[in-house]
């Protein structure tokens, strides 16, 4: 029950005045009460209270008392027997509190208090220093209610049940709630606008919600409480801040239900030596479990056995973090050895598994264990005793089954050499419908007789295994949130296969000599980080998979492709190295909306290849080096290429083939046959690229129409910009300088617009036209020994627009034609008069064969 914050000022003043009244200086008395035939001073508790003076003690003899009692005096009420079982206070009026406390320093101990279905068992109003101990409260609307600035009170060792709220604090400060048991309530213990209280060593179970902290309930301490089997949430926390919550035992289907957070709460204390709530030797954070036996964080070890997991816990993905989560110390270490020299509990791993319980550790001593092992025990850790796989070997007894079959959550397999002639579709380790497992530091050689033909990209087998397809190294089916870390896997169909599995982490694994290094199939939200895939047919393969992160991996020496996305979208590929593929480093097939950044693709036929409607991808900061073709887009549209480097590729640096509406911005392409080529590629934008030191800088070929080239730097090539059989393109503000043959070359090109370009110091011609008509060139700056060549078929080109006001490329105040200069300062624009100083020569520049610049720009520059 949450009251509003309205302050009843007048009532509160009256109550406080009453609490501080002095009722005389008589010595404390003992008053007895009995409503049976036992001798006593009074037959009702209320009569005794009315007669008592401050400091008196009221002893209640066994019996059932049907009353509603108001206390306005500092006094103590005790059961004579000390047991609440035989001294029962039943509400006479269920709409009123059983006890209403209006005075400071009241103590109540050893009673059963019940039956106030519409009010409270014990209700405190604005009081301090009261003490409730060893009472049973049941069937009240609220068991114990601290209200309106009730502070410094202690509730200890009370048992409260079957109420709407077990213990309620509203606008009450600095109270101590300790060692109480609260069950079968809607809310076990509720704090509303109540700060700086201590909740310690309480057991709150089988309620709808265990603890509830709402409003301005800030700065509270929750320590060493047990919150278990609460139906909706162990702890509801809403709008509160600066609470310290540690050494609690959470075991609920939902442990923390969080809402709007006004500030930060702290979920662990500094690690210190002291027995914690689950028997470990150190205090730290909290224990996090679920009624089905699951313990969080999953798949995390306690290597130093200090009773604290070695990784933080993001509490149910709420954003709250327990940095020192506790681990139960009741697990057993089971030993395995098949050597006569080593005493152990079992001689086979399967026997140890069959005799284990959740949370146990199986320690396997060096040896060769010929087994196929099934693990169905949750949170089981299976570890080689040396911690190294070199001398702890598990060899398949049967090649027609998995070596390890895992069907339980939270299993760890660490430090084994796992080998056998396993056939498709079985695996060295198979995880099926599991979560939070950890596969770490293992070596898997699935088919030692399996020979991988890296040059041909196919597999063959030696000896008796001819024609047999090997199985998988580690295979996950329908499994999530598992970690595969630091494993070495070779000679398999796929080193690691994820199928219909999400949220897994693959870290620092080495996969080699397989058809597929890592294969992610129909799986989302996985992370592949810092893995090495070498000498496979395909290094890393994503099929029909989205939202995966492929980061910092190295894939090399592949006979097919290093990294391959097939029908896969919304993935992130960052900072990977892919090299030495016989075919392609990174390929996307029908894969859209992926982000590729800062990858290096080198020394292969193709560096990065997008094909078959791989649309709307982003490529930024990638390096495509020493390939035949650096970056290749085929039948792929609306991609964005920015700040990539395509260098030293023997044929093409960047190639767009049958692709439209792509953006190429601020890329660098150099030292290739063609730095950038567009073939039958239209409506693309190339802006601010740097293209140099190739035979062709930018080449638009075969109906590459309606493209826009703006502000590109094209220099040091044989031919800077080459348009062949392509029309209606716009070339604006580009620099085509220092090319050894031509700055801009048009061959059978029609309807293009070339304006505001700088075409300077090209050794052959600035512009070279063959069979090119109806192009428009104006406001360009040409300064070459030979500025222009055109053949007899290159006619009807326009070399100026109508004179109009506006700065031109030579600094004049009108736009018209082009600026024609030469290094010897003998160009037409440099030698012809501009009498009216409008920046345009008075005479037209007649170049022959119908090519005339009627408004050549003027100037001496």
From TrEMBL:
Signal peptide: none annotated. Pathway: Protein modification; protein ubiquitination. Residues 460-525 form the FHA domain. The keyword Ribosomal protein does not apply. Pfam families: Beta_helix, NosD. The keyword Repeat applies. InterPro entries: Beta_helix, Carb-bd_sugar_hydrolysis-dom, FHA_dom, NosD_dom, Para_beta_helix_rpt-2, PbH1, Pectin_lyas_fold, Pectin_lyase_fold/virulence. Keywords: Repeat, Ubl conjugation pathway. NCBIfam families: para_beta_helix. This is Cell surface glycoprotein. It comes from Methanosarcina mazei (strain ATCC BAA-159 / DSM 3647 / Goe1 / Go1 / JCM 11833 / OCM 88) (Methanosarcina frisia). The lineage of its organism: Archaea, Methanobacteriati, Methanobacteriota, Stenosarchaea group, Methanomicrobia.
